[in-house]
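Researcher: For the annotation table, I need C-alpha cells for PucR family transcriptional regulator. Please keep the output clean. Sequence:
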Amino acid sequence: MDSLQALLDAPDLRLLLRRLAGPDSDAPVRRIALVEDLGRLGDLEEATLAVLTHAASQDAVSYRLDVALRTVGSRDISAVVLTDGREGIAPTAAALARRVSVAVLRTRADCDLAALLLALHRELAGGPEVALARIRAALRALEGGTADAATPEGLLRAATRALGAPVELRDPGPADIAAPVVVSDEIEAMVSAPRGDGHAEDAADAVVHLAAAAVARARAAARQAEDAPIRSRGELISEFVLARPDHGDRLLERMRAAGLTIDGWHTAILIDIENLPALAAEDELVSLRITDRVATLGLEAARATGGVWHRARIGSGLLLTRMERHDLGSRGGRDVAHAAAQILRRILSRLPEIALVCGVGSTHVGATGLRTTLAEARAALAAGHAGRRINVPTSFDEVGLQRTLIEWFASDSAREAVDSLLRPLDDLGPQKSRTALQTLRVYLDNQGSTTRAAAVLHLHRNAIAYRVRRIFELLDVDPEDPDAVLMLQLACRARSLG
C-alpha cells in the first residue's frame, strides 16, 4: 500500500483518522514516523506519514503549526497526524496546508497511539494479516443482514469499505480482478475491483467473489419477492379464462382486488415452446426451469415495451396479457405486435436453441374481452403451429381466422352451451374424449359422409359409422335434426380453438 487515500480507506483506519485539511490530490506514503518534538520534523524523509504525539500535537498551534507545515512541505512529507483530538485548524493553516501539499489528519483524543501505529505499519506493509483482515471484514459486512446490505448497491458499498478499494458492477479492465453474478444459472453482470499486488490481490480476489455471490443472492431474493404477486395474479388470470362461465363471475372481485384491470382493454400473446421435450430431455424439472425462464424473460421484455403486462400459464403455454384502463385504439394493436416481436427476440437472445410459436390476439374490452383475445391468440397460435412459423409472431388478424366464431365462443353463454352439449364426451376421459371429438368434427365437416371421414382419419368407413352412432347416442342428439347438428358442429369447431 503506497497511497495516503488507500490508508485512509483501510477498514482498520477508516474510523481512526479523518482529514482536516490539505490538497485534493493523493500522496504516496512509504514510511511511518512518530514525532515527539516539532523540531525533528525537518529530519524526516519524503513520503513519510508523521504522527505527532499528544504533547507535540498540543504544541502545534497558532504560528508553530504554520512553521511545522512549511517545514514538512519543504521535505515532501505526505501528511501530519494531530492526536490531541482537535476538531479543526485555523483557516490560515488550512490554506497553507493546501499550498505546501501536506495533508493534515486528526484522531480522537482517546485514540490508542500504539494501536494506531501498529495499524498504520500493518497496512503499509500489506502482509497476509491485512489480506485476512480484509476478507474477514467482507464476510461480516456481506453476511451481516443489515438493511443497507440487503440491496446489491448496499452490498457493493459494504465490500468497498471492507476491501478499501472500489468494488463495482462493471466490466473488468486489464488491471482488475472480477467475478460473475450468476442468477438462475445465467451470468447477469460482473463484479470488478482493482487487482492490487501480492497479498492485496489475494484479498481483492476473495472479496470480489464474496461480493458477487452476495449480489446474486440479493437479486434472486428480490426476484422471488417480486415474482410472488406476479404468480398470484397469473394464477387468477389462468383460473378465470379456464373457468366455466358460472364460476368465472366469482373471480372478478378477487381479480380487481389483486390490481388486475379486468374491466379495461386486453390484448393476449400466447407462446408455446415447440421443442420443449427435446430441450428438457423428458426431464420434468428441467422442463419447469425452462418454462419459468421463458416466462421471466417474456414478462421483462413485455414490460420494457411499455404498458401494464401480466403473465399466466395456460397448459404448457405462456400467456402474456396487456391490460389497459383506456382504449389505445389502433396504436394499441401496433404496440402489441411490436411487443410480440421484441419478446421473442429477448427470449432467443438468452436461449438461442429454443423454438417458439407465438399467437397474438387483438384488443377487446371487459371480462368477456379477456376471453375473446385469448381465444384469438389460441387460434393464431394454432395457425402458427400448422404453418411452422417458428420464432415469429402470428397475428389473429393476419391469418384471417373466423372472428365471428371465436368471439361467439368467448362469451360466457356460448362456452356454457358448448360445455353442456359436449359434457358426455368429456366424461369419457382425456384420450377417449379427444378421439371422439376429432371423429365427430371430421364427420360433420365432410357433410356426414363416412367415406370421406374414413379417408381423412385413415379408418374403415364402418368404424367411422360405429363411432358416430355411439357419439350421437351419448350426446342424445338426433342426427336428423339440422339445428342440433349445426350446434354440434359449432361446438366442435369452437373446442378446436382451445
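Researcher: And a one-line annotation?
Model: The first helix runs from residue 4 to 9.
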